[in-house]
Each structure stands twice: as structure tokens, then as C-alpha cells.
Amino acid sequence: xxxxxxxxxxxxRPGMVVPVxxxxxxxxxxPLGCDTVIVEHLADDLSGRFGIxxxxxxxxxxxxxTRAFPGGATLRxxxxxxxxxxxxxxxxxxxxxxxxxxxxxxxxxAHLEALSxxxxxxxxxxxxxxxxxxxxxxxxxxxxxxxxxxxxTALLLYLAPELxxxxxxxxxxxxxxxxxxxxxxxxxxLPQGSPGSVGFPSLASAxxxxxxxxxxxxxxxxxxxxx
Length: 227
Description:
CATH superfamily: Creatininase
Structural class: alpha/beta
Number of strands: 4
Largest sheet: 4 strands, parallel
CATH architecture: 3-Layer(aba) Sandwich
Strand content: 5-15%
Distance between the termini: 21 Å
Order of helices and strands: HEHEHEHEHHH
Helix content: 25-40%
CATH topology: Rossmann fold
Strand order of the largest sheet: 2-1-3-4
């Protein structure tokens, strides 16, 4: 977009959707940018639905539990916090943005803390973690860990099937003993023996992914208001 186009959009609604992804492995069958793919599609659809400006994607986040896998790249919490504060400050002061909607699909406690503690002068900031929604009966294993499992895989099969290699997918169930040591968003490493994913990607399908994505889009939309 040109500066003039941005000015016009902000005149109509002084808000901005900011997708924040990660560069993190989600098992041998999914791309490193799995979280990023999800929030980018969501940001595009929300921008079209509400006529709100969509910022370029921030493709790095905090995800210490899987940082040892090839290709993954993580930021420290304070680094992500500083980057986001500087971006938000620039858009608020330089362009007059008064409403920020930050989208993410990463359950890391440090990642969410970095986003939820952004400071502004006047603008409002709403952080939406799409994986915090209750998917209930839409999943065959509701409540199961989601690192490359049924939820992630179904969404990618719908949104970007060309990036999924289902022949490499491996189910990995968490035992009660493992669950006591592995808490998504808190543990610093995946359970021993995990291929990089946790859960049941074999339960995923593109049809299920479409239902899940429509659910996410509608739920997030209902939390926003029009101009």
C-alpha cells in the first residue's frame, strides 16, 4: 500500500490488525511457519470483513521448548516485548493508529506476556491468542496438547495443504507421567521421544480444518466491533 492508501484506511477506521507468528517446528509433517500461516490468513480475513488496516506479519516469537530443532528461531521475551513496543509506538505516533488487534497462535507464557504488556499513550491494544478458544466437539481429542497435533494439522490442511506432508506425521500421546512434567506454554522442552509434535495429527483433515477456521474467524470477529 502507498502512504496515501494507508492514510485513507486509517481515516475510515484508525485501527490495525497485527499478526504475530513464530518460526518454530511443529513436527516432521508441518512447516516451520505453521503459526504464521494461521494468523496471516486470519488477519487478511478480518481486514476484509471489518475494513481495518492489516500490518505486515511479525514472523518471530518466543518458543523456548523447541528451539533446538533445525530451522527454528526464537526471540527472548524482552526482545519481542521491545520490538512490539517500538512498532506500536511508531504506528501510534507516526500514523495515528488508535486501536491495535494483535493476533497470535502461540501458547508460550513468555510469548503472551511480551504481547500483553505492550504500552501505548492513547491507543487500545487487544491481544487474541486463537488457540485459547474452546474448540469442544470440533476436535476428536479436545483438551489434548496442540503442538503439531489434530488442531494445527487440520488448519494447515485447509489453509495451506501444499505445505503439509502427512506421510511424515506421527501421533505422540502424552502419558499421565509426562503430563506432570510437560505443560504447553510452560515446559522448556518437549517430552522425551516426541518427534517434535504432541497430539494426534492423524485425526486431522481439510474438512475439519475448514470447520475449525470458520469457528476461529467467527469467534474473533464477534470480539471486535465495526467502525
